[in-house]
Every structure is written in structure tokens, then in C-alpha cells.
Model the fold of this input.
Amino acid sequence: MNKRLILALAICTLLFAVLVGAQQDVSLSKVKIPDYADVTATAAPANPPAGTQRWYANTTTGKMACITSAGADCNPATAGIGDVLGPATSTDGNIPQWNGTDNKTLKAGLAVASANTASAIVQRDASGNFSAGTVTANLTGDVTGNVTGNVTGTAGSATGNAATATALAANGGNCAGATFAKGVDASGVAECDTPAGGGDVVAPAANTDDIFPRWNGLNSKTLKDGTAAASANTVSTLVIRDASGNFAAGTITAALTGNASTATALAANGGNCSGGQFALGVSAAGVAECDTPVGSGDVLGPATNTADSIPQWNGPNSKTLKDGLVAASANTASALVQRDGSGNFSAGTVTAALTGNSSTATALAADPANCAAGTFPLGIEAAGTAEGCTALPTTIAGTANQVTASASTGAVTLSLAAAQLIRVCEIVVGDPGADSPALADDNDTVAVCGNKYGVTLTITAVECRAVTGAPTVTPIITGSGATSILTGALTCGTGSFTSGTLNGTPVQGANSSIDGNITTAGGTAKQIVIRITRTL
Done:
């Protein structure tokens, strides 16, 4: 039976009960339902006995009302009269769900929450926010929490940890020279250390950057500096391919596989044409591709001929040829002269008036006159005779015992005092004045102490002095590494100079300069003087 019809019959039965027994409790088991009934409105009556309901016309609302023995509303008109059946029990605030059996029955449903609650429907809090464990989506705006996947774009900012990222927010700091990275910190800055070495192979006293070390030949435990590598055709270097995989060389001696863009000769002598034939061309293997001349002229050739010979008229008439002569660039008897690939040829004796210079001559036409003993010529005249003979000096003006000349050989000896070979350069950084600021680590002085002497200078000493504090410095050859002069940073003396430890025998090439780098300023030093001693 239809649920609406059942409810309507129940209401009509109750109305009839009121009519026939106004304030009495009526059983609904057997009641005859009249066509209509008049009901007098009244105030809410007392609650009926347990297990019963009491209906009345409410004077306030003007509608039928129903109360239980507990005083609860039992009017189906206010308790719901739809065709969807609710669950037996429900939880306050839950969102109901269909139970899946039909489209008329609900189950208790799911809870809602703004917090990260398992299996709950997401409800924004009073600020419009909510929390979650993992959100898989294309996000626009700011993200707070952990993100799994790639984060790209320019929308807002992300706070928390990303499983992957296409780039860091900024370029992290790198390790200094002669150190290596053990890893990176959370900001992407390299965490560095200096190699201490712990193997059983002994390194060389000094090494060159990017050089490949080699065994020194004494044993299997000692290395020497080694050999550089280059993709260019550089003598005595190892071959390393460039970014395109190519390298250059002078001469490669090997069995090559592939095509060469040019070649000075074929791998083997190709086959020639037979006698009386001529070459139309050569095959890919260098073999002559031949044909036989048929001839249709009025000149009679010889009975036989020699390949590459140049024919001659046989003399009796202008219609007959003989074999002729060969041609050669070498000095070959009775051969015609033919220039070689460079335009040259050889001969025994050429009798002619020559115009131009000869690269060599075995002798002059005659023995020319020489200068007298103890003199030297200023030049040679066209006939080969010495001219401008001048007496050889035995002394040269200047400081005594510094420049001498040999009267017999003319050799000049230059000997300078050791002190005159010294070239000292001082690099002054900062101002010792009372109002001057303390030096900072980056107050370096670059490209000073230039070598303009045209020769290589040998660095023999490096000293440093500070007015106050104990800063450290690392002077280097401009453009070179941190150990191009010293083995490590030099601590400046306070009020006096202290010396650093040279890295082998450092040199300063012609036209090069030196950088006066501050390693640690220390926070108190106002002036540093770096003194570098060099010798010619």
C-alpha cells in the first residue's frame, strides 16, 4: 500500500477518534472513518499515558497537532511525508548517501571536516581553508605543506618540501679551488672538503690543472705531473675529442676505415692502359679506364711508341712521326725537361745568363779579399770582398767588470751584480688612518706587479705585514690557481713582515701580473702590505 495513503488513513482515523471521544484514549484497531468531522481548537493538552498519542487542534497554529507520552511531536505532517526512506540512525552533521539498493533509501552518510580526517568530505573552515594529506591536481596559487610531483609555473609561492623541482630558487654556493663537494645543504649550497689523500700512491710535488698524471718510472707507487690533453694539433699532448667528437693531428699512421676528404696517394698502384691505348679516366679503385685510338688524320704515327713519350717528326716529310723523347723533372740524360708538381726540375749544368738569386752556391767565382787581423767587416760587396773593415774593440764603455769583449773572438760577456737582478714589488691594501674602516675579505688588489721586462721572472720570496690584526693573504699569478705562488694562505705579521712558503719555484711570465688576494681580513686590520721579491 502507498505510504501517503497509509498516513492519510491514520490521520482521518485519529480525527474520528477525537470526535467520538474527545479527551479519551482511543484504539485505532477498528474505527469506522466518517466522511468528515468538525474539531474544536484547544490549547496543548496534558501528555497521554505511556505508549499512546494524543491528537488535538492547536489554537496557536490552527493545525492538527500530536504529542506522545513524552511530550514529543508525533504529527507526520511535521515529521516528513516524502517518499524517500531515511536510515534507522543518523549522525548530526553527516551528509547522507544513497544506500545503493534503490533510489528511495538513504544511509547515514559521511562526516565533513576542514581538518585532515580520513574518509571525511572536505569542508572549508571559517577562513576558507582546509588541510589534506596528498592533493593530486594542477594547483594555482600558494601551497603550504608537502608536494609530490613537479612544481612549475609562476603562481604564488610554495612552502614545504617538493619531491622534485626543475630548479632551485637561487644558484647555490660552489666549493673553493682545490676542494670538492661532499653534497649540498637544504639551500643548495655545496658542502665542501679538502682532499687529504689516503692511498698508497705518492702524488708529485706539484701538478698542473687538467694534466693527466703518469708513473715516474721508479716504481708502481709514484706519479709525476704528466701530460696535457688537447683536441687541437698540439705537440706532445694526449688526444682528447672536442665537443663534436673531433680532433686534429699532423700525421696519423694507422689502417684507416672510412673515407678521407683528401689523400696524397692511393693505397696501391692502379692498373694502367695497355700499349696503344689511352685513359678515359680512372675507376674508384684508381684503375685506368682505357680506350684505343682509331685515328683518321693524314699524319702517320710510328709503328710502336713509348707511353708518355713526346713524338718527333721523322725528318723526310711533314706527315710522319717517330716515337720521340721522354720528359722528366729529374736529371735524366737525353730527356726533355718537365717541371714537377712544384714547378721545379733538376739538371746537370745549365749554361746561361741567370737572372735572379741562387739559394746556394758551391763557391764564388774568385777568392775575395779579407779584412786584416783584429778587424771585422761591416759588410760584403757584390764581388764577395769584405768591406768597411773595422778594428775590434777590446773594451766597452760602462761600469767596470760588467761588460767585456774578447779581442780574439769578439765574444761579449755580460755579468751583472746579483743585487741588480732583483725586482721587488709591494702591494699596499687599505689605509692605517684612525678613521679608516677595517678591511673586508673581498678588498683584493688585482692585476698589479706587472712584468714588463720582456723575460720570465723567478719569484724568490713573498712577505706580508699588517699594522694591526693577523689577516691572511693568498697572492696568485693573475688568472692562475690559488697555489700558483704559495702552497697556502700566508698569515701577515703584526708590525713586521712574515714569509710564506713558496710552491716549488714559481715564475711570472713576461707581460703577466699578480693579484693580491685577501683570504681572511680578520675584522681589525686596516692596512696590509704584501712584498714580492723576483729575480731576472
Remarks:
- The mean pLDDT is 80.
- The first strand starts at residue 41 and ends at 42.
- The longest helix spans residues 3-20.
